[in-house]
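Chain A, query sequence.
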Amino acid sequence: MDQLPDDVLVRVMSLLSEVAVLACRLVCKRFGGLALHPDVWRHRRASFGHGNICQCAVLRLAPCLRELVVDNWHKQRPSDGPRLTLFVATCAVRELSLYVGAKEVQPAARLIRQQQVAGRLRAVSVSFRSARNKDAAAADDALSLLLMSLASTSGVKISLSVDVEGNLPKSSRLVEDGTVVPTLRKLSCHLRQATEHFLESVLARHATTLEDVDLVPIPDSFYTPAPAASPARLLAGMPNLRKLHCCLIPGLDGVAACESLRELRLTVMSSHKGIAANTAGAAELLRRATQLRDVHVFDNQTHVLHDVEHHASRNNSIVELIGGLTSCEGSQLESLYVEHEGGALARLQSLLEQALPSLPTLRRFKVNVASQQLLSVITPDTNPSLRSLQLYRHEIFELTRWICPHAMLHTNRLKDILSANPSLHVELHSYVCSAGHPCGVCRRLPCRLSLENKLHKYKYVGVFAHPVGKCASPEDHASVGLWFHVSDLKHYNSCQSSCV
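Chain A, predicted structure.
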């Protein structure tokens, strides 16, 4: 052991657990010094606030960490040893993730300043939550202090997630205080009436720096902002906005003017009864925004509402959004995900068949409403750039004409698709039907259970047709999937023949 150089021992220690590294300090003086080498710790992540005594020792002894996560502040009194360790430790972290309430903002601000002084901090992520029964003014003061603390950090990527259940006052300090410097790069906030004024203030003050905005829709909320209060008018003027997630809010057509926008996720909420009036603007956004590279359209039907007219307007919304994509001229879209939980499948299917040939740069296509007719449209002529096709199962099991991914393993559908598209990679997600709603193939063939047991370590089944080891896009062979060559499907075809 004495003949091994220090760099080899440091490399070995970097692969050990935190407990093992701390134990190395007790071996000898040389090991004690190497156990505190920065290369042993710079890639590690520590989670503070869950009663892990080892993490206190890590914060006290480790010279640096990749990430420090602090949660459960309320379980530690200021005089407690673990909480004191957090502020007296000299450990410098690269990423800081904090989960705070109104009472934890002051110690969180202190910790941010401390890590800023340490000189290694590059990213700060803060999740702020205020319960419904808490004082709204106190939450407003806490948010003001938090934003001012974040504004004092320079050269740091800052992300803020806000969940306020109570109503913030209209005369918020966030609106009146003109000293807040634009620093936020990412903002995530529930879109509800309680946060209307907060969103308006933060989006306006940090418009020049925001790159990722997630206006989290509330499934059980019927709130839709009025056109004059819609965040869309502020989003349209952001020069660096790259990612946007929101429901169908008024004025989305104006966001097409945001030339930096690359990723868009639109959620059609089942509880929003005013979606019909806002669908036209969202469809116009998809029609005009040729700068988009990644689009995800999600029809979220979390509640079964017995309102036929409301169901019809929601289904028309998803159809109209796909229609906007179809009529987009000069599209540069590379990834499209259509996730639909409602009806109007035949009409949606027809529009998707029209949309695919109009997307020549499409590289990834994810869908849960695919039929054999839709898949037959995909050819090297219509979609020359397509490399990944991800098929998910539709939740309405009665519609057996929609593809069950597991059933595809027992037919010639996959072989036909891959024969026509040899560079394509097909991923079959949720390939096994649930026990309560099996399709005809899953009910008849005994391999369903054996496949389910074999694939518990994987997220999906992948099938390809190109020669093994000669893939033009090896990144499409993700390790989380169990991959088969199309020639390996002969076993499943013979299994089907023996069971018919």
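The chain has a mean pLDDT of 79. The chain has three domains: 1-40, 41-385, 387-499.
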